[in-house]
Amino acid sequence: MLKSLSINILLLSLSIGVFSQNADSLQVDSLKRRSYIPTGIRIGTDVISLIKTQAQDNFKGWEINADVDFNRYYLNFDYGSWGRTFSSDAGFYSNDGKYWRVGIDVNFLLKDPDRNMFFIGFRYGKANFSENLYIDLYNPFSGSQVTLDYAHTGIKANWFELTSGIRVKIYKIFWMGYTARFKFGLNYDDTENIIPSDVPGYGRTEKDSYWGFNYQIFIRIPLRKQPVFGVEKK
Q: Residue 49, CB half-sphere, CA atoms under 13 Å: how many?
């Protein structure tokens, strides 16, 4: 009987050990699965665009920014409006249009309890805009003025960006941060008579690459309780 009791106790101990191991494994698997469920959405705007619109006569625009928090990874989307005018004694160039960007950021501050961010990311940008060029020139041979007026609509452009920046929680649901952008790989539709001088969301076109900068404010809408990084049962 003693021998039978010892065997039963041994089998019970092994069963408890296996159950505990399975429970730990299920908990880790559950944490991994939940890491793909968004914990929150941030929605904000670019302050620099708003200031430039008020302070400069040759720029009108705004930009809305949003990101979805998948723990370490953030899905980003930007949408904006942009219009610029460049003038000289001989005439002027103007454009107006909308643009958007989509991409991913990777957060490198994994254990910050407030979920502050230092990130590196990538974007794909696209714009749809119209442009107008007006030139008033003097013809020395005929002694008369020559006026040239070109207009194009529905021009499409696209480009890529490498991004880096920070996001900092300032109070409850309010956040602030900046994004530095290295823009490159610009492509745009061929247009007759003129080459686009400026692309909404990208900037001047005379260079193969272009630097941009946004200073942003956000509100964050929580979707579920945020997990603590690096805490998993072994």
A: 26
